[in-house]
Here is the input.
Amino acid sequence: MIRFERVNKIYDKTKHLALSDVSLDICVGDFVFIVGKSGAGKSTMIKMILKELDPTEGRIFIEDVDITKLKKREIPFYRRKLGIVFQDYRLLTDKTVYENVAYAMEIIEKTHKDIKVKVPEVLNMVGLTHRMNYYPEQLSGGEQQRVSIARAIVNDPKIIICDEPTGNLDPRTSLGIMKLLKAINDRGTTIIMATHDRDIVDMMQARVITLHGGKVVSDKKGGYDCEATYI
Ligand SMILES: Nc1ncnc2c1ncn2[C@@H]1O[C@H](COP(=O)(O)OP(=O)(O)O)[C@@H](O)[C@H]1O
Ligand SMILES: [Mg+2]
Here is the structure.
């Protein structure tokens, strides 16, 4: 479903080789970690899936479409397939929790009726019904990240892309976020998560692709079950 085919990325200005000959396949419904130290190339990989960056060489297929060939006007439609979660939440500060999530539906012209049904449903799923009318600054970091996850899933994307989603959170809050992502994955959504936090990776049963200096140095199905370890 997602295929990197001999992908290289050289940043123009610095001539830095950020990804080197990366080939991999990610299947529908997978939960995949992209791990590696800071500078390993994780965000570069994520940005290429989001089509914020193009590879210097190689091709990237999403559902059999070579996204390196997408035209500019096709990119917004392509991105609708994706839900995106960042380390710094990126919520709209002048909108409430409800409005932040609703906005993701408004921009793709969903009806008021659909919005009224769907937003409370996803806020319930992320455990934030009681915070619906709060503004982001009135929430904890973990709650803000839950809003950003609600916003990412509200349009039922097939794939969720997360870049260091627990990067600003303490271990206990991070665990809650991971359980939420696992629950979303259990409903069939493919999840790709970049992180440099080994502890989080080790407690999940998921595939782990390790980057080092822009190269894939290992690709393992492993870890042990999060539920079994923590309950
Ligand atoms: N816009 C850029 N211009 C030049 N070099 C960059 C740019 N973005 C990232 N890099 C370099 O590419 C390498 C990989 O970066 P990145 O993908 O952000 O790594 P990670 O997310 O694993 O920390 C790093 O050496 C970084 O300095
Ligand atoms: Mg990064």
User: Anything to note?
Assistant: Confidence is low (pLDDT under 50) at residues 223-231. Residues 171-186 form the longest helix (16 residues).
